[in-house]
Fold:
Amino acid sequence: MPADRDHRIATADGWSLAVRELLPAGPPRGTVIAGHAMMVDSRTLYRQDRPCLAETLRLAGLRVLLPDLRGHGRSGPRAAEGGRWTYDDLVDDTAAYLDLAAMIDQSAPIALLGHSLFAHTSLAWLGQRPHAPVRAHVALAMDLWLRGCEPSARRRLLKRLTFGLTRELAARAAYLPVRRLRVGSDDEPAAYWLSMTRWLDADRWSAASGLDYRAGLPAIECPVLHVVSDGDRLLAHPSAAANFSAPLRRRELWRLGHSAPPQLGRLAPDHMAMVTDPASRPLWRAVAAWLLRALA
Structure:
C-alpha cells in the first residue's frame, strides 16, 4: 500500500489546515474528502491500530483526504490556546479542501463525506454553490438541533437544557472545555458554540450574515446519502435528522436498525460508534460501494 501523504493548506485569514492523503494500491477510482464531527479530530475516521472507515474507503480503491478541521487536531491553534473560529469559517473551508483535491488529481471525480459536523458544513457550502464539481455526498449521523425538525417534546427539552447548561460556560471561558468535561478530544470556541444556540432559539440554520443555509439544500444537484441510526438517541435521532435533510431533492435515507439495506441487518450504532466501532464495518463497506456507484 502506498505511504500516506500530508498536506498543508494556507487560508486567506492565516490558518494552516492539515490534511492527510490516503492512497489506494491501484489507480484511484475517485477522491473522497472525509471530515469529522465536532469536539474530535480526524482520528475518529482513521486509525492505524484498528479497522476504520477511511481505510475501508482506501481498500475500495478510493483516494481519501482527511482534514483536521480548523482548530482541531493538527489544524491549530486550539481553542484553549487562543484559537478562535466560527461555524461560517468551517463552512468556507470546504472550498480549500476541494481545491486541494483538484490540485492533486484534476481527472478524479470528487465526493464529500462528513460525520456529523462536516456533513452539514459541507452541505451548507454546497447549497450556495450547487454547480461545484462534487459528484456525491455522504452524511453520517447528521442533524442540527432545530425545533421545527424535532417531533419529540422530550428531546426538544433535552436539547434546550443541554445548550442552556453550556452556553454560559462557553461564554465565560471563551471556549467550551470539551477535554475537561471529558466529552471529546477538542475544545470548541464560544463563537462557534453560541451560533448553534442561536439556531435552536431562532429555529433557523443561518450564517452570521443572515444567509439561510437550509434554504439552499434544494439547489444541491448531486445525490446525497444520509445515514441515521436507531441507536443514536439524541445527537442525530432518526426522526429529527430525517426531517432536517428532507429538502434535499436527491436524498437517499438509510435508517440503521429500521429500514437500512438488508445486508446491514439490525446494525444500529450510536452517534460515534457509526464511525469508530469496528462492528460498523458492514456499514463502511456499504458506503464505499454506494460511493463507487455514484462516482462511476
About this structure: The chain has ten helices and ten strands. The domain at 5-151+215-295 is CATH 3.40.50.1820 (Rossmann fold). The chain has a mean pLDDT of 95.
